[in-house]
Design a protein that fits this description.
Layout: E1 2-5, H1 6-11, H2 13-21, E2 26-30, E3 33-38, H3 75-85
Length: about 90
């Protein structure tokens, strides 16, 4: 098992991840205390994949707008008052 301090892990992360892909396990140390372990996955099936439902790209025009709010106060008046104070 390879032992690596946090600073070295941060500076050479890609190299260490390639070693994990090859099957190595890396122990992460903070000063002289072990705090974590990076191990290779046992199988690719254990990886969670989230894929979009559709590959069709949606434009902003396709998104439905919410119904307008029914307020007794005019929002533009409130916004003008707030901005006028600054």
């Amino acid at each position: 098992m390879r032992k690596v301090r946090i600073a070295e892990l941060k500076s050479r992360l890609s190299e260490h991840l390639r070693a994990v892909k090859r099957g190595e396990t890396i122990a992460i140390f903070e000063r002289d205390s072990p705090i974590a372990r990076i191990t290779p996955l046992e199988s690719q099936r254990s990886v969670l994949e989230i894929r979009p439902r559709s590959t069709r790209s949606r434009s902003l025009a396709d998104v439905a707008l919410p119904a307008p709010l029914k307020l007794k106060t005019d929002v533009l008046v409130l916004l003008a008052q707030e901005r006028g104070e600054r």
